[in-house]
Amino acid sequence: MYVVILGAGRIGTRMAAWISGAGSEVTVIDRDKQRLKSLDIVLGQVGLLGDGSKIAVLDEAGASRADLFIATTGSDDVNLVACQIAKHHFSVGKTVSIVYNSENESLFNILGIDSGVSITDMVVERIELELADMFVEEV
Amino acid sequence: MVGCSVIGATVAVRLSDSGNIIKVLDRDPNAFRLLPQRRIETTRIVPVVGDGRSESDLRRASAHESDILIATTDSATVNLMAAQIGLHLIRVPRVICLIDEEDVGEIFAELGIQILARDSLTVDFLLGEAMK
Questions:
Q1: Chain A residues with CB inside 8 Å of B108's CB?
Q2: Residues A72, A15: contact at Cβ < 8 Å?
Q3: The domain that contains A89 carries what CATH number?
Q4: Residue A2, beta-bridge partner list
């Protein structure tokens, strides 16, 4: 399996390490040279410098032979557009994206992103779970 | 109008010249300096501080009552997202979106968005001038 990840931040880096550890090939696109450098030290030459919302950069990343595209940047707009290009131009089988503003989750679904993961909702739910015992209704 | 860039402000003024009411959404309140003060005072152009990537901010700028949404921020991805929120979630009758590259434009034109690409506009203009 071949996976292209957009964003070499904490999430993108951990995803890349996990996928690479599972024996699959991975390329990580980021606009920040420094972040790619630290990624390459850990995982070998997997980084590609560039703007992942550009067709030329996704082409260079080999998006046309990718089975899975994962968008993990901190910008919902970049993640959305990159997934749409991956899906419509490069016919990537599955696109997954982080969604920061949970208000946007339905847009990602409507536009055919296979899986939009709302980070904010997840974190809030987790915190609520952790704090649940503090808010038990008093009888 | 999403984005009070030089282009956004210029188009807003032109549309306002022909009697339209324009709401201009921008994250940066300082961007509204590009709009003529008189038009703001007479509420013919209404500045609204907010993010074009947010459905609720677009609605605060009355996108749900608009005839047309034009996205002209300096970021192509922000414009594409705003245009698609307008088209699919708010159901604005017509959306126009400014982007950088024609090849990306082709993908989104097929998805129902009217696209203006800076590169092809520039090439068309230069060719037109050269052929004169």
A1: 84
A2: yes
A3: 3.40.50.720
A4: A25
CB of A101 within 8 Å of a chain B CB? The answer is yes
B91 touches chain A (CB under 8 A): no
pTM confidence score: 0.90
Which strands, in side-by-side order, build the sheet including A2-6?
A: A47-49, A25-30, A2-6, A68-71, A94-99, A115-118
Rounded Cα gap, residues B112 and B84, in angstroms: 9
Separation between Cα atoms, residue A11 and residue B71, nearest integer Å: 30
**Domain total for chain A?**
1
Out of A77, A88, A104, name the one closest to residue B75 (CB). A77
Radius of gyration of chain B (CA): 15
User: Containing domain of residue A27, as a range?
Assistant: 2-135
CB atoms within 10 A of CB B76: 26
Average pLDDT over residues A92-104: 92
With an 8 Å Cβ cutoff, is B104 touching chain A?
Answer: yes
User: Residue type for A138, please?
Assistant: E
What average pLDDT values come out for chain B (132 residues) when binned by 10 residues?
A: 94 94 96 95 96 96 96 96 97 95 92 90 88 84
Angle between helices A33-43 and A10-21 (to 10 degrees): 20
Q: Where are the alpha helices (DSSP H) in chain B?
A: 6-17, 37-41, 55-60, 76-84, 102-109, 118-131
**Residue whose C-alpha is closest to residue B69's, from B56, B52, B54:** B52
